[in-house]
Design a protein that fits this description.
- The structure is a single chain.
- The chain is an alpha+beta fold and 368 residues long.
- It has one domain: tRNA-splicing ligase RtcB, CATH 3.90.1860.
- It contains ten helices and 17 strands.
- The strands form four sheets. Strands 5, 6, 7, 9, 13, 14, 16 and 17 form an eight-stranded mixed beta sheet that branches. A five-stranded mixed beta sheet has the order 1-2-3-11-10, sandwiched between helices. Strands 4-8 form a two-stranded antiparallel sheet.
- Helix 6 packs antiparallel against helix 7.
- The chain is globular, with a radius of gyration of 20 Å.
- The mean pLDDT is 94.
């Protein structure tokens, strides 16, 4: 068997946990694997590293994509003028994005967005738990005026970032695969492989629709509109140049602009992919990446903060989250330094910075 190339896109200044590297090395031993790439946000997952790209020949590995198939980021320029954005007023109007809309409201939104009835599970339009969120932001700094203006961005208006995926749909697809194959792969050109891809592609499309509906719910409640700048998926598998490219927490660098958020208490970066895209598996970091496991965060921070303190960040932004455990799990300190992640991508010749954005209000969860 040919030696599989293991590629880590990170500088010595970026701390990457040894367990994540070990998980990356384990994936390189899978049959048919050609190349594995760890990005600067690389961190351990449940047996599979997050912030990585896995390139195989002939084989598909659903467990490398994970249970949240289609999870990604939708970034919009809203019509809300920054000078008229009032925190308390906006917070009062934001709907509960964890609560189902109801069949009638969901059908109306699907009709407005030209979505078929195949997109109507009760979880449509809900953000989900974990690191998922919906966030209003403002421009902090424009770093490339030409690209910024060419994409219809306006520093005087508020932006919206939605991070969510396929909710229970992706989970059901992965469980069905594991019930028959455990963590084993399947031949792409087999009945099982073709069936998985059909279900996978539906989950990706559903996740895109879900982000659209979440945005529509938010903007509708505020009686405004917006324009989508990008919608990128960072959990998927697709065929590319004779290989199957599995992304697990990795943003595509071959689909235009990319938004790379930090934690809820740090800046987000809008970047343009540049250079030799194949070098990093046609992918970029999808965020800052976790520094601490969820189970560790509260123990490390509870002696420094009360849950209520974590609802306001050092940047002056607000966090809507009534789940105390989640507030600690998603605290800014639990994440790596987004500035270092961006510096690594830039030093490796993979991105050009376009603009930075400061969070204003981050919606997580209104009930525990």
């Amino acid at each position: 068997m040919d030696k599989v190339k293991i590629n880590i896109i990170a500088s010595p200044e970026s701390w990457i946990e040894g367990e994540a590297i070990k998980q990356l090395e384990n994936t390189a031993r899978l049959p048919g694997m050609v190349k594995v790439t760890g990005l600067p946000d690389l961190h351990p997952g449940r047996g599979t590293p997050i912030g990585a790209v896995f390139e195989s020949k002939d084989m598909i590995y659903p467990h490398l994509v994970g249970n949240d198939i289609g999870c990604g980021m939708m970034f919009m320029q809203t019509d809300i003028k920054l000078q008229k954005f009032k925190f308390d007023k906006v917070i009062r109007k934001i709907p509960d994005l964890q609560a189902p809309m109801g069949d009638e409201a969901a059908a109306i939104l699907c009709d407005r967005l030209s979505l078929s009835e195949a997109f109507l599970p009760t979880s449509l339009g809900t953000v989900g738990g974990g690191n998922h969120f919906a966030e209003f932001l403002k421009v902090e700094q424009i770093l490339d005026v030409e690209i910024f203006e060419a994409n219809s961005l306006n520093k005087k208006k508020v932006s919206l970032l939605v991070h969510s995926g396929s909710r229970g749909l992706g989970e059901a697809i992965l469980r069905a695969h594991i019930a028959h194959f455990r963590a084993g792969g399947i031949l792409a050109d087999s009945e099982e492989g073709r069936d998985y891809i059909i279900r996978h592609d539906h989950a990706v499309a559903w996740a895109v629709a879900n982000r659209k509906v979440i945005a529509e719910r938010l903007l509708g409640a505020l009686r405004t509109t917006g324009q989508t700048i990008l919608d990128i998926c960072h959990n998927s598998v697709l065929a590319k140049e004779g290989r199957y490219l599995h992304r697990k927490g990795a943003a595509p660098s071959d689909q235009g602009l990319v938004i790379i958020p930090g934690s809820r208490g740090s800046l987000s970066y809008l970047v343009k992919p540049v250079g030799k895209l194949a070098k990093s598996g046609y992918s970029l970091a999808h965020g800052a990446g976790r520094k601490w496991k969820r189970s560790e965060a509260k123990g490390k921070l509870s002696n420094r903060y009360k849950a209520q303190n974590l609802k306001t960040t050092t940047l002056g932004s607000r966090v809507i989250c009534e789940d105390k455990a989640l507030l600690f799990e998603e605290a800014p300190e639990a994440y790596k330094d987004i500035h270092q992640v961006i510096a690594d991508l830039e030093d490796f010749g993979l991105i050009k910075q376009v603009a930075t954005f400061r969070p204003l209000i981050t919606f997580k969860k209104v009930t525990s």
